[in-house]
Design a protein that fits this description.
Layout (H helix, E strand, L loop, with lengths): L1 E3 L12 H22 L9 E6 L5 H15 L3 E3 L10 E2 L4 E3 H10 L5 E8 L3 E2 L8 E4 L4 E5 L14 H19 L18 H4 L8 H11 L6 H11 L3 H8 L7
Parallel strand pairs: 1-8, 2-3, 2-6, 5-7, 6-9
Antiparallel strand pairs: 4-5, 8-9
């Protein structure tokens, strides 16, 4: 998993001092009203989270991902109609899709009112200098993409394991959405925000944020519901993820 981060700046040509002062004044007047309402946490606490299948994606898995996101992040979540995978993002030599271009595609097609948009694909994806990735996010930003291709045991020539697939998919979407809120990689291997370069690194982790990452999430979105841990535990138990449910039942996301 990886997060796409970047920085940018505005380069102005040399101007006489008087003109620069006037330009600065115009910029201050233009920007100041926005700062009154927009310079705290994220710009808005409104909107919904959207999960958008890119091509064909298992509907039951999407529904479970959506339900989990809604509880974990505290916003309504909707599964959107599928979008076709754009041919421009495909690398025929590697037989993989370029994740950064899929993010651009999602930005172009974001539903009106969506605060976050997760593109989910069953195709293999990659980023620069990486053989493959499980997901990529604009950090901070609106969009992220998650691939379930290598989460399937069948991808590796093994017998399919639906419970394991479900668990891995929730970890990936939890992780990538965390990046969209500006949360960086965590050094705790048990935390879902830890960097996972393979399934051998992913599987020992949990569908769970450690105390530090939970606090960062709460700072980004505002106060999390008091019953959040109990509701996540109930949902995870319902879908068969007993180990992960126990972490929330014990309140370990709040205190360690």
């Amino acid at each position: 998993m990886d997060d796409g981060e970047g920085s940018g700046g505005l380069s102005l040509p040399s101007l006489p001092v008087r003109k620069m002062r006037l330009l600065n004044l115009v910029m201050i007047v233009a920007v100041f009203p926005f700062c009154l309402t927009g310079c705290t946490k994220e710009e808005s606490t409104e909107g919904f989270f959207a999960l958008c299948p890119l091509g064909k994606v298992d509907g039951n898995l999407l529904d479970r991902m959506c339900r989990f996101v809604e509880i974990a992040y505290g916003f309504p979540c909707k599964v959107m109609p599928p979008l076709p995978l754009p041919s421009r993002t495909y690398n025929a030599v590697r037989k993989q899709y370029r994740a950064s271009e899929l993010l651009d595609y999602l930005e172009e097609n974001a539903p009106k009112g969506a605060r976050k948009l997760v593109g989910v694909t069953e195709k293999d994806i990659y980023a620069r200098e990486m053989n493959f990735i499980f997901g990529l996010a604009n950090s901070p930003g609106k969009c992220c993409v998650a691939s379930t291709a290598r989460l399937h045991e069948s991808f590796w020539g093994n017998r399919e394991n639906e419970l394991l697939l479900r668990r891995r998919a929730l970890m990936i979407v939890y992780h990538e959405l965390g990046h969209t809120f500006g949360i960086k990689h965590c050094n705790k291997i048990e935390c879902a925000m830890c960097y996972h370069n393979s399934l051998h690194e992913l599987d020992p982790g949990n569908v769970w944020f450690c105390q530090d990452c939970t606090q960062k999430l709460e700072k980004a979105v505002g106060r999390l519901p008091d019953d959040r841990e109990a509701r996540i535990a109930e949902f995870l138990l319902e879908i068969g993820l007993k180990k992960d449910a126990q972490l929330y039942a014990e309140g370990k996301g709040r205190k360690e």
